């Protein structure tokens, strides 16, 4: 099976040795997105703004792969403070409709560049 690199200039450029996403067959594996503004490559301020920026970054990569949030089957959320989980749920409700993807929310000690939230996802595009 061949692999295709997916990139979007509407999401932050990779800041390491990884691709924004890889498409293998009809499955897209999106790398973790932190709340970097894709133009300035600076972290946005505030938890809610960071969460929105992460969803916008994921959306841009999903669209570059030919998909949308409706195609996400698995979403992983990494939080430096699990007390923000209710806010993540609220914001996620702005982006997703039922049936919701499978999801994990994981508390972590730290994220790149001091981000408070990071997410990655798997899409299946029919």
Overview of this protein structure:
Its EC number is 3.5.4.-. Keywords: Hydrolase. It comes from Ectopseudomonas oleovorans. Belongs to the RutC family. The chain contains two helices and six strands, in the order βββαβαββ. It has about 130 residues and is of the alpha+beta class. Strands 1-2-3-6-4-5 form a six-stranded mixed beta sheet, with helices on one face. The longest helix has 18 residues, at about 45-65. The two termini are about 15 Å apart. About 30% of the residues are buried.
Please supply descriptive tags for the structure shown above.
globular; alpha+beta; 6 strands; 126 residues; 60s Ribosomal Protein L30, Chain: A; deaminase activity; RutC-like_sf; 2 helices; six-stranded mixed beta sheet; 23% helix
First and last CA, distance: 17 Å
Q: Number of helical segments?
A: 2
CATH class: Alpha Beta
Q: Give the % helix.
A: 10-25%
CATH architecture: 2-Layer Sandwich
Enzyme class: hydrolase
Keywords: Hydrolase
Protein name: Endoribonuclease
GO molecular function: deaminase activity
Give a short summary of the structure.
The protein has 126 residues and is α+β, with helices and mostly antiparallel strands. It has helices at residues 47-64, 85-95, and strands at 3-6, 21-24, 27-33, 72-79, 102-107, 117-124. The protein has a single domain, classed as 2-Layer Sandwich (60s Ribosomal Protein L30, Chain: A).
